[in-house]
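Quick start: what a row looks like.
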Amino acid sequence: MSWILAILLSLSLLSNDLININTADEWTLRELPGIGPVKASKIVEYRTFYGPFLNVSELEYVSGIGPGTVAALEELVFIDSSLSPAADTLHWMAEVDSLSPSLIVSYLDVGQGDAILVEAVGGKILLFDGGPDTGGPLEPPVVFRLLELGVDTIDVLSFSHPHADHVGGLASVMRNFTVLEVLDPGMPFSSWLYEDFLNAVMDEGCDYRFLETGMKFQLSPDVTVTVVSVGSREVNLDLNENSAILRITCGNFSTLLTGDMEEESERTLTPIAMPVTVLKVPHHGSLTSIFPPYLRKLSPQIAVFSAGRNNSFGHPHPRVIEIYRELGSEILRTDTQGTIVVQTDGEVFSILTLMQTFNPGITIEN
């Protein structure tokens, strides 16, 4: 019996030598290698503001702490997983095979870029982002995708930011469809694609105004669009970080359209982040857009990755896919599954994927 007690005592002493990074005070933390008074203070500040660390590697998101420091700490610190908060899945909805939808959201397969069609049944249609213009004699992919879905009129056209993979197809959309209103995030940016789009807006003479943070509008009595953030309109800004972000809601269903937002934007938005049913994963699944506290607050039931097949950027990154799987999210990808159509009545939802190649034989009437 005495040897059992000795083993238990040694294990107890060993565990007491390890520091719990979620409960240790600044004085204890500053004794760790590579952690002085400043970094110890930032660790406490981080967990106070964003909640407890769920794994040791998350220390890399604390200002001034890099992978080398984290590697040196792995044998000296621990996390009491029994005290970690359970994943928030109360907002997750039942998936069904068929329903009578109030809202249809199509994450369009446009190659390496974003384009999302939001249709309020019996109401208005919103197109958010227009994907790239792949060049050559063919119209951009977004035009063919819209025709495949039977679209002829777009009530509201908007976009996250004026990078080519988000606005490249919008000038052609203006010239091939009836567009009633354009909502521009208003970022100063010199680009012939963006200028071509603005010229097309002027040529068509539709209503034009700027997106504003906090703006809300209805696509139908059941479907609300909220502008979560627009970001800055200063010159020489980081367009990705200032991506306009839209939240679409219908009953208990919600989807968040995130453009190419990255870590700094995610940090800023974490305090106001709300759970979401479907997340359009930021920046095509890049490693620059995986701030853990933000993703935990969103707790998406479905994560949609919009990326081109065999793209040169390596999107989506395998680690990002793994992170969303760890959250319990269902993974959907335009590069492997084509256009992803989510339908909902506000209480349940269904998913349909449309794996089709571009059809240059489609006739476009100007």
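That is the whole record. The chain has two domains: 2-83, 94-354. The longest helix spans residues 2-17.
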